Amino acid sequence: MKALLRILVLLALALIALFYVDHTDDKNEPLKGPTKPVPNTEVPQLSGDVMERPKEGWSTYVGKKIATFQKELGEPQRKGPSAYGFTWWVYNQEDEYILVGVEKGKINQLFVTGEKIDLAPFKLGQTIDELYRNTITDTEINVTVDNNIYTMILSEIDLQTRLLVMYKDVLAQLYFDGETKKLTAIRFIDGETLVKQKPYDMTYVGEVLEPKKPSSFDMEKINNENAQQLFELSNIYRQLNGLPVFEIDPRLSVVTQEQVEGIVMERIAKSDAPETELESLLKNNDIPFEKTSENLAEEYADAAEAVSGFMNSESHRKDLLNEDFNKLGTGAFETNFAQIFIKQKEDVE
Question: Which of 15, 48, 139, 146 is the most buried (most CB within 10 A)?
């Protein structure tokens, strides 16, 4: 009898252990973006060696009227606001994903990625070693706007995953997969917009360029657009790695948005951000799941930067490319981004 009782106890413990294994709740540390700009006490030495701007490809559109671009690709799938005073034109097409920044009728940047996108003058899948052999690069890039000089400082991680190349009148941000060392996306951008977005550590001589702070009403729209881009880009990177895309779950996205807002507000209030108990959070919102995890990024310029950060952090990448997860909720609050992944049975609504 005692032996039978002991066996039953062991079986009960095993079932409890199995329950917690199946309901994995990973907590990754939040990714941290660039530090705030600091003034430079010395004027940097400006180099006269600047590569000529490519005569073909996406970079040729930067500075031109948006009507020129419309003639080639037509109307976008949607238009959404940004936190930097321009409007995003979003072209989310099969095998291609293009974000176009439009300000006062002119293009200030293009971010392009996708399975079959043409990244001219570069190539999708091009290795970083190949690029270093054929392109002038540096650890510090000086950008002049009016009488101000801004120095973008590339970290060791940047030099492997997010190179910055200066051409005449335009800059190129080259996004590499740090694991495969292959080019996955590119952004062509003008100097003034790059300085406003501050995607790298930066020093400056003169004045800092700051975008006009959006109203709370406009910020809500900006957050929604950033969250949508985060979802779309997450699926693009899944496709680039041969994985099925995430399904959207509106309830999960609402929870993810509330989660990122709550964490940021706790930080602003200078109190400890609450521990993320994902299982309780999902259960309290009646969201069924078998497995879950979460990614957070703080102080990132936009969704494209956040996804690049996730892809080049081992633990965050593991979740983003986990085949078990089939649904994704995304949220954004100012310069903070969140993903909540769940594994859910296909017959669950």
Answer: 139
Are 281 and 270 in contact by the 8 Å Cβ rule? The answer is: no
Using the predicted structure, report yes or no on whether residue 196 has a pLDDT greater than 60. Answer: yes
What is the average pLDDT value for the chain, to the nearest integer?
88
Residues in Cβ contact with 178 at an 8 Å cutoff, skipping those fewer than 6 apart = 157, 160, 161, 311, 312
Residue 124 · residue 236 · CB < 8 Å: no
- Given a cut of 90, whether residue 112 has pLDDT beyond it is yes
**Cα 235–349–317 angle (5° rounding)?**
25
Phi and psi angles of residue 139, each rounded to the nearest 5 degrees, phi first: -80, -20
Q: Hey, which residues does 39 pair with through a beta bridge?
A: 204
Nearby residues of 95 by Cβ (< 8 Å), 6 or more positions away: 114, 115, 116, 117
CB under 8 Å to 134, separation ≥6 — which residues? Answer: none
DSSP SS3 for 105: coil
The kind and range of the H/E element at 80 are: strand 78-81
Q: What is the pTM of this model?
A: 0.89
Residue 245 in 3-state DSSP? Answer: coil
Query: How far is 44 from 273, CA to CA, in rounded Å?
Result: 40
The number of CA neighbours under 13 Å toward the Cβ of 143 is: 28
> Contact, 328 vs 246, CB < 8 A?
yes
Are 82 and 72 in contact, with CB atoms under 8 Å apart? no
